[in-house]
Structures are given as structure tokens and as C-alpha cells.
Amino acid sequence: MLAKPVGIVPTGHGLSYEPKWDGWRALAFRHPDGVYLQSRAGRDLGAYFPDVREAVNQAVAPGAVLDGELVVWAGERTDFSQLQRRVTAGTGRDALARSHPAHYVVFDLLSAPPGLPLLDKPLAERRALLTSLLADAPAQLTLSPQSTDVGQATEWLHT
After folding, report:
1. Long-range Cβ contact pairs of 126-134 (< 8 A, separation 24 or more)
2. Could you tell me the CA-to-CA distances from 140 to 34, 45, 61 in Å, in that order?
3. How far apart are alpha carbons 8 and 46 in whole angstroms?
4. Up-side HSE of residue 77: CA atoms within 13 Å toward CB?
5. What is the DSSP letter of 57?
6. What are the pLDDT digits (tens) for 61-89?
7. Whether residue 4 lies in the annotated active site
8. Candidate list 3, 10, 15, 20, residue with the active-site label
9. How far is it, in rounded angstroms, from Cα 67 to Cα 18?
10. pTM of the complete model
11. Pairing relation of β-strands 102-112 and 141-143?
């Protein structure tokens, strides 16, 4: 699902909220021989984010498919311009990855190891599996916060 701009937080029974990240949406396919990062448009992002590929490869078992957002942090905020530099850095990409590492903020699990499709499962069930899957993951792989509290969602909207 794609986030849409709103002026106020929608309310209703059974809603859960997550912050909108200032990054690039990406799927991470953990194959037995490595990780394939794919943009929402279907492009291969792996060459631009070797640090994220390696983190997913080390922390996630084959067969998983993660849905999340690639971000670069600058203090407590994300820095979209540093994220964009990955595409134009050329031979300086490795140095850029060391000085401004990318992170993968994960908000959904589409397939669980060893390749069990989860698209028919409720979000709450997928979220519980994702939380367990990322329990020992490095900080570079972050579980996106989620809340049912409208006050928390309103704070995220304004910040």
C-alpha cells in the first residue's frame, strides 16, 4: 500500500499506524545465494545498496521477502539527498556506504523462510512473524514502529 497525504489522521476501529519514511520503497528477496533488492518500479537496487544487501543476507534466512523503505540517517532524521547520492556516486559508492550507511526500515513480511507465502494472512500475523524474524537483526535492519494510538500517529504526522 502506498501512503497518501492527509491533513488529519484517519480514525476508525481496527486501524494501525506507521510513520511515513523519507526514502525509497524496496522489496528484499532473500535467496539461497544472496539478496535481490527491487524498487517499486521493478528496478534492481542492489548495486547501490551493497551494505543493505549484506545486512539482509546475514540476518534473514532464505525464502523471506521483506517490504520496507531504504533510508539514510542524518542524526535523528532521514537524509534523502544522501540516499540519492548512492545512484550517482559511481566508484565512490563504497566510500559513501561507509560514511553514510543505508538502513532498511521493514514494515511487512510477504514471504517467510523457507518461502512460505503470507499475502493471504492478516497484517497482524505477518507483523508478528516479522518481529520474530528481525529480533536479532543488526541496527541497519529496523522494524518500522507501529501503533494503534491516534495520538502517536498524529505526532508522526506532524514530525
Report:
1. 130/66, 130/106, 133/60, 133/61, 133/64, 133/109, 134/59, 134/60, 134/106
2. 17, 17, 16
3. 36
4. 5
5. H
6. 999 999 999 999 998 899 999 999 988 88
7. no
8. 20
9. 14
10. 0.92
11. parallel
